[in-house]
Design goal:
alpha+beta; 8 helices; 8-stranded mixed sheet; 18% helix; SH3 type barrels; 5 domains; globular
Amino acid sequence: MRKIAFIFCLLLSFQNNLTAHDLNLPHTPDQHWTVSGESVQGSFLMLKGTQVYLENSNGTISHFPLKSFSIANQQFIAQKTSNILKLNTRSSYSANANEEKSNFYPFLILFLSLTFLLIYLQQKHKYSKIIPVLVCLIIVSFLGFTDKAIRTFQTITNPLTIDSAFTFYKPAVNTFWDSTYFRVESKGIPAHGMMTGITGWQQQFPIPQCYIGTNAWSIPLNPSIAANPVPVNQFHFLKGAVAIAVNGVAIFNPYTNTGVDAFLDGQLDYWGGHCGRADDYHYHTAPLHLYSTSPLTFPIAYALDGFAVYGTLEPDGSNMKSLDANHGHYAGNGVYHYHGTATAPYMIGNMVGSVTEDADLQIVPQSKASSIRPAGAPLKGAVITNLLANANQNGYALTYTLAGLTYLVEYEWSTNGVYTFKYTSPTGGVTTNTYNGFKQCTISTSVENNIIENKELVIFPNPSKGNFEILFTGKQGNINLHEVYIYDMLGKLLYQDKASQGSLALGEFGKGTYIVKVKSGNEMYHKKIIIN
């Protein structure tokens, strides 16, 4: 009996040793970097936005754009940044391997305890009637820490990790989150070209949409593995997006709502996108081209089930491992992710995460595009040759050929939401159509991003449950506040009052992201706050 007790204690001690590791990051030595083709020496400090900060041996700090570094350097920077994020958030989130595996330790302890009790009772020949019950409990506890059970536990994704992937496309996108969803605001228009190369044109044109506020894209922060993954095919998710790219462009099912592969049907441009019936631009294949503007080890998209989409490399920089039927696999940390490829199914074979599909065959919640005109019809034989933004940045000129002749469509929108389409034929004939539609919106950070982090204005804690402390610091010392304004992310004024330095009680506003504007003297200061 003493031997059994000794073994039991030894097992528990071994378990504790396994979980007592600390994450020790190796020191980053001074090294040579290749920046814009030239050698730069220094040690890595941090990646902030799109700027990489280096410190040389004499303590001088310099920064360079991430994209100016060599590919090898970018991979190193991405890995270091990922490690720093994991270290900083390890105590709060369960996205790394040790934390996820800790979910099954109670089952392990229960299993060992019941086994110990069963052996003891058998040796003493006591309570024989309860032994079958103990055997059942042991089986149940054993199943509790199987690999399959571990992966069906709910996971919590660090929103800062998700946000790091979108950083390279701000301020064209804005991000915020609550306890349930990571939100992405955008207008759905990429920085790269659009429409060129389409041979199966539906006569739709890219028009910026208002994916903001309550219509922002929603990525679950608590994804769970579905008992039966739903296929992304001709019968499911034929309307709406299945993922959102890190540049704010929606990604749809490879199959259109008519059940054809959009790429094979010639409906997609050189970037894998086209416009839907509401003139909303979106991709139908994995946007692997985004790796020209973001690190190779960062996600290019997040599926609407909450799991990331990577390209040809794993998050640790190694080559892509073999893919399962869902077009992804579990990483070394036990978290599932997808991979984008150039061939079908391109990105997602089956939705691994639990999602809700409504009667319209789309995932909910789902951001909605706004139509300003009747949907177009296929124009057989037309080939789009170019799309250029106009000088005022409020419209485009699209050129296409048909039967060897060139046609031009120029369209624009006014601040009042009037959309004008001008069609010019090869002979010079002009036809104009006008539509009354929605007023174009702005992404909240697109104007204020450069001044959103005023160091003189301090609001803490942020995020908060609604109670914030507000004060000013600066070279002149503390100063009094004069007026405080608070807006929601749609620009609606929610609060206005004269105040001095002190507390703001904003719990009645509810969870979400808000903009605080503080007027002091002739200066206006801004800060983004989050109520969680």
